[in-house]
Amino acid sequence: MRFRLAPLAAAVALLIPALSAAPAHAEAAAPPQAKDLDQVVVTATRTLLDVDAVLAPVEVIDRDAIERSQARSLPDLLAGRAGVSLANQGGTGKLTTLFLRGAESDHIVVLVDGIRVGSPTSGLVSLQNLPVALIERIEIVRGPRSSLYGSEAIGGVIQIFTRRDAAGWAPRMHIGGGSHGAHEYGVGFAGREGRAWFGADYAFQRTEGFNACDVAEPTPFSGGCFISTPEPDLDGYVQHALSLRTGIDLGHWQLSAQGLRSEGENDFDGDYSNRSETLQQVVGGSVRWRPSDTAQFKLTAGRNVDASDQFNHGTYIGFFDTDRDSAGLQGDFGLARDHLLSVGVDWVRDRVDGDTVYVTDERDNRAAFAQYQARAGRHGLQAAVRRDDNEQFGGHTTGSLAWGLDFAGGWRVSAGWGTAFKAPTFNELYYPFFGNPDLRPEESETAELGVGWKNGTVDLRLDAFDTRVEDLIAFDAAIGLPNNVERARMRGAELGIATDVADWQVAASLSWLDTRNRTFNTDLELPRRARHGARVELDRAFGDLRIGLTGIAEGPRYDDVANTMRLAGRATLDLRAEYALTRALTLQGRVANVFDRDYETVAFYNQPGREWFVTLRYAPAD
């Protein structure tokens, strides 16, 4: 394998990663610790903002919720949440695509610690290769965000924060095993000393897997598997992951550095290749300067590497290697109390290397943006505009506007509007004998309304949206190439509630989605999006014992554009329990898909049946 974990330490030493900036009119403070982050979000506005003041639909999954859920992968953690549909090709480590509010998988911006990630060739993010054991928290922002983040932010933005560091010295470790020969372990430490912070975490995961493709007879290009000869073997997955971080607060100046490296070995079914060795690496750096209580500046830089070596029955057949370099400078200015102006510039360079020869293998994107946030009495306002200039497709301007009004009794109504776009990928533009260099960006416009209520132990929010996308890129039989020939409409509603009932913690979400392909008035549903979805989590503590369950239900979906292959819906139930053996030692156990339901999210690809897993965690109490 050409990938090694060791180079990460050297890469981190060269760069200094971004920590999210606080509003410019706030007092200077040390970097937020985990307990502080529970009360704020940064992804919705690129500034620290109290979670109750955010006008956009946002969901936050913190470390406590991650460990309580006992999810073993990022797709497992995200499944069934409001607005989210997942399509997986055969279990842990296999290709997993995420649709948010019905938007395409490449219509979502994903950030890791503020650094943009994803493949410039396919436009996808390898969610299955981002280790959940090294994640501190996740922020999901639904709705268009191109006015702040540029290309791809049609459906929304997902930001992943790696593990954070607490005061003093905090070692931790875990070990576990379960079904399908699965086992994992991890070790790490974190701490603060004076003005400096530091930490490192390593995680290992392995599973023998199961037969990914449900094809018993030779059928050329059979459904989604695209194999001519069945391979009834176990399709396993191995992952090594390392996270490092450090930084120092010098008062008006703050420097920090962190990086994440994940290496995987993945077996699957396929004619061209049936094994890959993958690499996901994110490193970045930030320098923050706060000259006064009303102004601050943040300079960031980072790189994401998405690479893979391909094998067929042990024979090396090729590779791809994509780099995404990014940098940004943002200034936040407190114009008056509760009035904040943010301006900035962003730069991104995508580069492609591999066996496939592209006519163009590198491109730059430069952008400038401005955002104004204000609060006056019971009213909240957020407005943003951005201009992107890409050397391949030229300039594009996007904007957004959101307003909220608070009422007595904890009620709030909000309304928003935004435009967004998505630049064509390298594969769509330049893949030999397939790409079309004359493609234009896909464009969208979204309107949304929301109502929320927060009163004591109840937090409820209902959001409705309508998104229309023009110039969708699809295969055009008339020219034998991809072309801007399709139109689509996605509309729906999402309901989320968190409360306590008779000592039970309850978190639930419901989603309704109606997608339509409006090309040539076909009015067909977009594939692999469930029309209905629900997730409910119940947890309760009985002294040192905690029990819980997660139920997920999804309606039927179509697997193809023509709506001829219908996949049935599914309903699964996971049970979990944990017991505090000591203040530092916890034993966890989980049974997933208790009733052993058989279902598919992509045609012909198996999903795991009933699974069990046991984990022992060590983390000294504060």
What is the element layout, followed by pairings?
Elements: H1 7-14, H2 34-37, E1 40-41, E2 49-50, E3 58-62, H3 63-69, H4 74-78, E4 84-88, E5 96-100, E6 108-112, E7 115-117, E8 135-142, H5 146-149, E9 156-162, E10 168-178, E11 182-193, E12 196-210, E13 235-249, E14 253-267, E15 275-292, E16 295-312, E17 315-336, E18 339-354, E19 362-376, E20 379-390, E21 394-406, E22 411-422, H6 426-430, E23 442-455, E24 458-476, E25 481-501, E26 504-517, E27 532-542, E28 545-554, E29 557-558, E30 566-567, E31 570-580, E32 585-592, E33 611-618
Parallel strand pairs: 6-9
Antiparallel strand pairs: 1-2, 3-8, 4-5, 6-7, 8-9, 10-11, 10-33, 11-12, 12-13, 13-14, 14-15, 15-16, 16-17, 17-18, 18-19, 19-20, 20-21, 21-22, 22-23, 23-24, 24-25, 25-26, 26-27, 27-28, 28-31, 29-30, 31-32, 32-33
Organism: Novilysobacter luteus
Domain TonB-dependent receptor-like beta-barrel: 269-594
Membrane topology: Multi-pass membrane protein
